Amino acid sequence: MVIILTVSINTLIVLHSHGWKNQARGDTPMRSIQEPKQSPIAIGTRWTLKSSILGEERQILVRVPTGHDTCEQAYPVLYLLDGEDTLFHSASGVIAHLSEWEDHLPEMIVVGIRNTDRTRDMLPTAVTLPNGRRHGGGADAFLEFIANELIPFVEETYRAGPYRMLCGTSASALTVVYEYLSQMIGFSAYLASSPTLDWDERLVFRMIENQASSELSTDAPLVMFAGGHDQGSIADDCKAFNKLLLELEPGSPRVSYRVYDVEGHCPFEGFRDGLLWLMKDWRVSEECIDQGIDAVSEHFESLRLTHGFNISIRSYEEAAHRWASRGRIDDAILWLKQGRAIYPKSADLAFGLALCFIRDKQEDAAGILLADAIASGLEDPRLSQLLERVSA
Amino acid sequence: MVIILTVSINTLIVLHSHGWKNQARGDTPMRSIQEPKQSPIAIGTRWTLKSSILGEERQILVRVPTGHDTCEQAYPVLYLLDGEDTLFHSASGVIAHLSEWEDHLPEMIVVGIRNTDRTRDMLPTAVTLPNGRRHGGGADAFLEFIANELIPFVEETYRAGPYRMLCGTSASALTVVYEYLSQMIGFSAYLASSPTLDWDERLVFRMIENQASSELSTDAPLVMFAGGHDQGSIADDCKAFNKLLLELEPGSPRVSYRVYDVEGHCPFEGFRDGLLWLMKDWRVSEECIDQGIDAVSEHFESLRLTHGFNISIRSYEEAAHRWASRGRIDDAILWLKQGRAIYPKSADLAFGLALCFIRDKQEDAAGILLADAIASGLEDPRLSQLLERVSA
Questions:
Q1: CATH match for A286-391 among 1.25.40.390, 1.25.40.10, 3.40.50.880, 3.40.630.30
Q2: Residue A55: its chain B contacts at CB < 8 A?
Q3: Mean pLDDT confidence for B298-306
Q4: A181, A304, B147, B249: most buried, per Cβ within 10 A?
Q5: Which residues on A lie below 8 Å from B146 (Cβ)?
Q6: Contact state of B48 with A37 under an 8 Å Cβ cutoff
Q7: Closest alpha carbon within chain A to B34
Q8: In the structure, what pLDDT confidence band is assigned to residue A4 with cuts at 50, 70 and 90?
Q9: Helix and strand counts by DSSP (H, E) for chain B
Q10: Per-domain residue ranges of chain B
């Protein structure tokens, strides 16, 4: 998060150019760093779990929101198939950015499932290769592992709420669509990036055509996307499958499909856009904020009841910032106090509330808040600068 | 990276629905994971450096491309201001995705610089606050730290090439524009996300108006972006500053500016789009690949000479995949062999080359390659599956 402090401008310091350019580009640096210390940058926990159902060890990657360990909130969980290290890094990074740096998504736990035998686990049915070997057919067992070992483990270990999403890419996006249709587990939302829907003579098309019901298999939303330069028939198959779903429920707001013209297989933009589409009711509008604290509370209470989502730290900041900048300092202070009751250790909320107290000429309250925050071990250097200024 | 294996389809296994749904959602999970093991998911190294120039310790976050430690290549480096953990996670994740999962960018080293006293370091000039305290004015010293301590440290510690980028957000994007104009260090490219260009009575505008030369200060490209709902006058100031730059060099292809209508401060999409714009010459076109291996080699040789960029693992895979799928298996094999000479430990290249050998009916060569890769300690389970199949 970035805060801009607006100040009056009285003085201008003359600029000096010191001509470091040649030194920086030359072979002999002017000064060398002494005794650098190093440690790993950790973004989460890598678990190794023994699965009885699959009869093997599985690596599971988990990232929790920054505030997870210092509050009592439960979070939605995104289960990411093909959750190898690079995809887990980028996907969890996008989510961290959209939910903690911006307020576009609720904060969520991300669970990446690394592969051992990808084709066995992802393909719902087995086919026989020309050489007689069998290929695929383990998706049922893999989903059983997720349902009866992984989800219970995640929900015992982390503060995971009831809203669960399933996301996959290519063959694992076929698994997502297969689970969407079969509802073996029943997720709250589904994301499928370039699903290989033609597997096994268009199995998933046949599942719809053969189903007894003439309705969609679930109320959960499904978002599919592909690249205009995708592999094989993937983009066309997505389009046809989307059409088939909409024949069951014309104009359904719960099915979304998009092709990214200039992109190839599994366009990464689709992941971001798909999450934003699934969470399009999440953001509180400027109009709603302008109606005041009751309207904003009602917005989030409704999301809590329907989805189990919490108000995020960024959402507390966003509304308070707008109220404060429009002179509604009482609303801002009340709202940030509510936020601090939920996230008592958030440096951002402490900082925001202290700024509001200063504007409200409650410098003592600001000072107490800043001193408390510093005493509780927060390292944010802005806090001590602000305390110094308030105490001056 | 995702590979789809296309196989003939002979058999269809009847599906069973096991009704796990209630168990997964119930309170008593069927099975509990025994003895889970855990370790951190590390995406890079956190360095603590003692800066003599700044007279303090600074935390520096570094992520290197996956292949960095097992090849001899030098990489471009992105220096990320405001490089706190969340922004570093998301920014380095987007870069990892675009360069290692996709082939949209060259692989690069990302260096995040965490803040201690942000306003001191980022604001080029000092102003006096109403309470008499001084605010800002440390950007020259901060740039001296980057030039004479940080860059030498990075280039001694990692295989960093000569292409250096500077990226900042909000106040630190002002620092980026200030360095672009003053050329104290001289980066190869600049990215400025929602720069606060109005600082100190529009200092950076005055720097251009007062400069002796009537040309742009450097040949390096500058990309600026802001949100349509950005803070204060940021979007308008960006537009005006872009116009001022283009008065010096009408139609310059080295200056880019974009406003994201529905976004707010520091739109994250701009970071991705800005990098893609800076690197728009990077990707080899399908037309170029179709011309053959000489045209592709020439494309990358030209980028190596002008920018110092290497051919990435993904670029080796991408062209080889296209040739192999069009029956040009000799080109694919030759190209992947060249790739393996550069990245001898890449499991992806070993896997791709083995697939080509199998298509070319060189099963023994494929077997040797796979056995070598496994013996060298690669853990990719696809390798042993493939070896088993080849040896059958």
A1: 1.25.40.10
A2: none
A3: 93
A4: B147
A5: 24
A6: yes
A7: A50
A8: very low
A9: 16, 10
A10: 45-278, 286-391
Q: Give the nearest chain A residue to B161 (CA atoms).
A: A25
ipTM: 0.86
Residues in chain A with CB shorter than 8 Å from the CB of B29 are 148-149, 151-152, 156
The minimal CB distance from A21 to the residues B31, B118, B184 is found for B184
How many CB atoms within 10 Å of residue B291?
13
Q: Locate the chain B residue with the closest alpha carbon to A98.
A: B268
Superfamily in which the B45-278 domain is placed by CATH:
Alpha/Beta hydrolase fold, catalytic domain (3.40.50.1820)
Q: Model confidence over B361-380: pLDDT tens digits?
A: 999 999 888 887 777 766 66
Q: CB–CB of B127 and A32 under 8 A? A: no
Q: Tens digit of pLDDT for each residue in A279-327? A: 999 999 999 999 999 999 999 999 999 898 999 999 999 999 999 999 9
How close B217 gets to chain A, by Cα (Å)? 14
Q: Give residue-wise pLDDT tens across range B272-289.
A: 999 999 999 999 999 999
Q: Per-residue pLDDT averaged across B107-124, rounded?
A: 94
